[in-house]
Design a protein that fits this description.
With 392 residues, the chain is α/β, with parallel strands linked by helices. The chain has 15 helices and 14 strands. The strands form three sheets. A six-stranded mixed β-sheet has the order 3-2-1-4-13-14, with no helix packed on it. It has a four-stranded parallel β-sheet with strand order 5-6-7-8. It is globular.
């Protein structure tokens, strides 16, 4: 048992508490939160700063870490994917290991308690096994040929079953990659699997995707033809990515990753859906397309927004605190308290772990960040000067 007395307690889902008190049991589970009352249970820790829940990186591709600095900036999503596939074909196990470990070490520095790892090789799991993170693994599925949908799904389910037996501590989910790489039939099959609580999909990331769905042409069609994955009888929907997604969406909780190209009408529709959470990866978007999601409009529109770093193939490091800083730098009207919310409780919602993580509430085990500052704005904006340490 531990009692924490702290200058500022930042619970996330309720107002901040000055001269706060937090009591946790030996597993890190919260059993009391409130004002300091002079009483202690177990070891007393006094902290002259701020305490807040562990951060959450909703969307990261650790397995792509070996591609750092190998893909040029600003050439668009299609060009980035083509270069990615070329570089992955040159895969070296030692390089892969080094990239994953580098990514993990940076994530640890930020006070991250959980990650949404996205991949299709399962290669990062052996390195995540002995980390402090709670891991949700989104197994990313591609396949644009509709007739292959059932076979792809069956193969994917068998792989997940195998890796679940090896890593029982990991929560696995199925995730269609994108609307331009996963057929509508396969996406609907994935959404229908009730044993998986959450799914995610890359959507509205670049102009090539919009062109493809509106006209059936452009770089994505050329690329699918080039790799022999083009269904000649495919009928393009003639609508934007988000509106196309609207025709496929079920009630399953879905994380929409990127959302760079989105209208006010589409934001209003998404806001109505309780089971949709946006995940924005600002620095990755700037790296690939030099365009940001309209995070201010998403926020004003009432959408739940979480944050991710994406991969080292499109980012210089995997710091979720730098993503927070980037949001504030480009959208100064968004309060820092809300940006912290994006990296805590909204991240927990994105991973289907809101009952365990993301806020200081009795019964949760969210991890505790002890920050030298007691100012949320300083925590968000001065990641290089404000040291943090993580404790259960």
């Amino acid at each position: 048992m531990k009692t924490l007395r702290v200058r500022l307690l930042f619970p996330v889902t309720q107002p901040s508490i000055e001269n706060g008190k937090l009591v946790v049991d030996d597993s890190g589970r919260i059993i009391f939160i409130g004002k300091w009352d002079g009483k202690r249970e177990g070891e007393l820790i006094t902290w002259d700063g701020m305490a807040l829940p562990g951060l959450i990186n909703t969307h990261v591709h650790l397995e792509l870490g070996h591609l750092k600095d190998k893909i040029p900036k600003g050439e668009g999503v299609t060009s980035w994917v083509k270069r990615l596939q070329y570089e992955r074909a040159m895969l070296n196990n030692e390089d892969t290991k080094r990239g994953i470990i580098e990514g993990i070490e940076k994530i640890k520095e930020d006070g991250v308690i959980a990650i949404g790892e996205v991949g299709n090789s399962f290669s990062s799991l052996q390195y995540l096994k002995n980390t402090p993170f709670r891991v949700v693994y989104f197994y990313e599925i591609l396949g644009f040929i509709p007739d292959a949908a059932e076979e792809i799904l069956d193969t994917s389910l068998n792989k997940i079953k195998h890796y679940q037996s090896l890593y029982p501590e990991v929560k696995f989910n199925l995730a269609p990659h994108a609307l331009y790489s996963t057929s509508e039939r396969l996406i609907k099959l994935i959404f229908s699997r009730k044993e998986f609580k959450v799914t995610s999909i890359h959507i509205a990331e670049g102009k090539e995707e919009t062109q493809f769905l509106l006209t059936g042409n452009g770089p994505w069609k050329a690329y699918l033809e080039e790799i022999g994955k083009w269904p000649p009888d495919w009928k393009f929907p003639g609508i934007s990515p988000v509106l196309y997604f609207k025709t496929i969406f079920t009630s399953k909780r879905t994380v929409l990753v990127h959302l760079c190209n989105i209208s006010q009408y589409e934001i209003a529709w998404l806001k109505e859906k309780e089971n949709i959470v946006a995940c924005i990866c600002p620095r990755s978007n700037l790296y690939i397309t030099d365009k940001l999601s309209p995070i201010d409009k998403l926020f004003k529109g009432g959408m739940k927004i979480s944050l991710g770093t994406d991969s080292l193939a499109s980012n210089r490091n995997l710091s979720i605190r730098l993503e927070m800083k980037e949001v504030k730098r480009h959208f100064p009207s968004i309060p820092c308290e809300e940006i912290i919310r994006m990296a805590t409780i909204n991240g927990a919602l994105s991973l289907g772990m809101e009952d365990e993580l993301g806020s200081f509430e009795v019964g949760k085990r969210p991890g505790i960040i002890l920050s030298e500052t007691y100012n949320p704005e300083e925590f968000v904006m001065n990641e290089d000067k404000v040291c943090v340490k993580m404790t259960e």
